[in-house]
Amino acid sequence: MAPTKVKIVEVGPRDGLQNEKEFVATETKIELVNRLSQAGLQNVESASFVSPKWVPQMADGAAVMAGIARRPGTIYSVLTPNMRGFEGALEAKADEVVIFGAASEAFSQKNINCSIAESIARFEPVAKAAKEAGVRLRGSISCSLGCPYQGEVPVASVVDVVERMKALGCDEIDIADTIGVGTAKRTREVVAAVSKVFPRERLSGHFHDTYGQAVANIYAALQEGIEIYHASVAGLGGCPYAKGATGNVATEDVVYLMNGLGIETGIDLDQLIEIGDFISRAIGKPSASRAGRALLAKKRDGVAPCV
Amino acid sequence: MAPTKVKIVEVGPRDGLQNEKEFVATETKIELVNRLSQAGLQNVESASFVSPKWVPQMADGAAVMAGIARRPGTIYSVLTPNMRGFEGALEAKADEVVIFGAASEAFSQKNINCSIAESIARFEPVAKAAKEAGVRLRGSISCSLGCPYQGEVPVASVVDVVERMKALGCDEIDIADTIGVGTAKRTREVVAAVSKVFPRERLSGHFHDTYGQAVANIYAALQEGIEIYHASVAGLGGCPYAKGATGNVATEDVVYLMNGLGIETGIDLDQLIEIGDFISRAIGKPSASRAGRALLAKKRDGVAPCV
């Protein structure tokens, strides 16, 4: 049932960098996006058209999108929280716009003071405009495997949000384990349930490695036939609130897994580990990718790690 | 086919600490072993009866074994490379002695200048003496999923070593991915093959997280019915040869996985994360356990990491 090839959506330039305190130079962001597309990533989440007051790191979204060298066939996505963001995205010629909502009622109330249903309804104009403009529409569902406030998130809540996003016309929907608490069993339960209401081949798994479970969760989701996975080169996107806590699963670790499983990604792992090294140096942080660190050590020092 | 309960073999005090350059005080080692058994670990690899010239960190094995408070039912294992080691282990009242060999011919030649077959035959006296003394005998097979020198390790080589260790009378045999290169598919192939020549319930999986695959490999091995897993609290056992490379899979991450799968371990995860914190502070290194760090941050600071 596991697919023979998968699409990896690289979220490092947006989800990964957005919480970096030090502003990352626009040219560094552009180089990151360009190198990722050259390495074979078919979809790169490149910017966020959100108010710079909310996310100062993403203030240069228009400049990033204007500066990149578009690789034919690559989808460059941007986050669009509202119509103003959508207009920016359209002007920037984004291939895909991303809207979002939580599967947790407590999270929705606490973060944006409204119900899940209301929060998704607010995206109606964006969704409508995207459809009219012929831009791909992606919906991302946070807290799909657990919530920091309410803990357990019922599978039915995730299914409900998927149905709402489907009704808005989403081409692709992300099942996101925002806080990384999910394990393999829950992953399978959730993706199996949502596969019944939305085409499996347009569902994606977005896992965080906070509890060390992300690669196992991807292996579990593969067994449910999921064909799209999000990942962040060098594991960009460490948690801003807890020192040492890890964030997005590293793209290198995911590609290493897929290579071992004989599942095609179209991604050059060697180029990818160089990109991980490049961006880690640029932001002055060690790479959070285990495969990236091990392969780089082997390449640079000629040592086989950990014998 | 996945088991409803598993045994976790804690290898931190031996495999984890053995490469620490700074000598870890004997009382710290004793406290580590004691706290691990109190937390519910049923098997603790506690010391190595190897020449202190080879492994100075393990020079105090007899003192560690003499100092621990034995918990009824807990198996305290020690590594015994030869008859001299075995005699020390017997005197120290070890419950289980561990012998070892590689599944890779290149590794065996390069490291101990003899063939796999010869290296295992050398353990015959130890195996015989263990059987006569009524001490449990465990065999550990390194490089079962890959070798730093020859790369690929044929499944047949692993099966061959399992058969040799079975012939020596091993009660339990470890399939060890010493350099952490294995992925889920290979894991399943190897454990499925060796399960045909040795009772599945006495096979264990020993995975390293060097390439970020260990938890996924455990999830894969569970699906092949493997019921015993090695792990190291705080991920003790970082690689001595490559900076930043990770070693043994962290016990906290494995218990977190099992809890999520509803598989019984008998281990108190809260105690375990405190032990991970204790030993990480004692050796002055950050914990390599993702679950350990995340749960500790949540407990100490009241924050839910990575929202």
From TrEMBL, chains A, B:
Family to which this protein belongs: Belongs to the HMG-CoA lyase family.
Organism: Caballeronia terrestris
GO molecular function, one term: metal ion binding
Full protein name: hydroxymethylglutaryl-CoA lyase
Domain of life, per lineage: Bacteria
InterPro entries given in the database record: Aldolase_TIM, HMG_CoA_lyase_AS, HMGL, PYR_CT
Alphabetized PANTHER family for the sequence: HYDROXYMETHYLGLUTARYL-COA LYASE (PTHR42738)
Known catalytic reactions: (3S)-3-hydroxy-3-methylglutaryl-CoA = acetoacetate + acetyl-CoA
Gene3D superfamilies per record: Aldolase class I
Gene Ontology biological-process entries: ketone body biosynthetic process; L-leucine catabolic process
Residue ranges annotated for the Pyruvate carboxyltransferase domain, each copy included: 6-273
Enzyme Commission identifier(s): 4.1.3.4
Keyword annotations of the record: Lyase, Metal-binding
Metabolic or biological pathway, per its Swiss-Prot or TrEMBL entry: Metabolic intermediate metabolism; (S)-3-hydroxy-3-methylglutaryl-CoA degradation; acetoacetate from (S)-3-hydroxy-3-methylglutaryl-CoA: step 1/1
